[in-house]
Design goal:
Elements lengths: L1 H35 L5 E9 L2 E9 L3 E6 L2 E6 L5 E5 L12 E8 L2 E8 L3 H7 L15
Antiparallel strand pairs: 1-2, 1-7, 2-3, 3-4, 5-6, 6-7
Length: 143
C-alpha cells in the first residue's frame, strides 16, 4: 500500500514540476516579447522549427534584424543576410503546419530557418517582411 502511494505521489509531483516549467517558460517568452516591443517594428510569439521539435520563441523584427529568443536561446540575423522569405502551409519536411497557422521560412546562405506563426499574425509579417527571392528586391516597409 505504501509503495502504491509513493508511486502515485512521484507521478503527481513529476506532473506538477512539468506543468510549472511549461507555464514558467511561457511567462519568460512573454517577458522577452515585452522587452523587445519598444525597439521593434513587430513582435509575436512563434514556434521555431528545428527538425521535429517546435520551440516556443519571441519573434521580433527591427529595421535591420530578425530576433528569435526564449529563455534558453538568443539568436538573430541581419535582414541584409536573408536571401529568401517565404510563407507556406507546409514545413520543409513536407509536414503541414497546424490548422490556423502558417510557416515563415527564411533562407540565409544555404541555411533554412522556419517559424510557425498564427494565421492572425501572418499578414502582419507579410506586410513588414514581404516574400522575396535571391536576386529580387524586398519591399519591406520601414517602421
Amino acid at each position: 500500500m505504501l509503495a502504491t502511494v509513493t508511486v502515485v505521489g512521484i507521478v503527481v509531483l513529476a506532473f506538477l514540476v512539468w506543468y510549472f516549467l511549461r507555464t514558467r517558460s511561457k511567462d519568460l517568452v512573454t517577458e522577452i516579447m515585452e522587452r523587445r516591443r519598444p525597439s521593434s517594428r513587430l513582435v509575436t510569439r512563434a514556434d521555431y522549427v528545428e527538425g521535429m521539435n517546435h520551440v516556443p520563441v519571441a519573434l521580433s523584427l527591427t529595421n535591420d534584424t530578425v530576433y528569435y529568443e526564449n529563455p534558453d536561446m538568443q539568436a538573430s540575423f541581419e535582414l541584409a543576410r536573408i536571401d529568401d522569405v517565404e510563407y507556406d502551409d507546409e514545413l520543409t519536411t513536407g509536414k503541414s503546419v497546424p490548422a490556423g497557422s502558417r510557416a515563415l521560412r527564411l533562407r540565409s546562405h544555404g541555411s533554412t530557418f522556419e517559424f510557425v506563426l498564427s494565421a492572425a499574425e501572418t499578414p502582419k509579417w507579410e506586410s513588414a517582411l514581404p516574400p522575396k527571392r535571391v536576386g529580387t528586391q524586398s519591399t519591406a516597409k520601414a517602421g
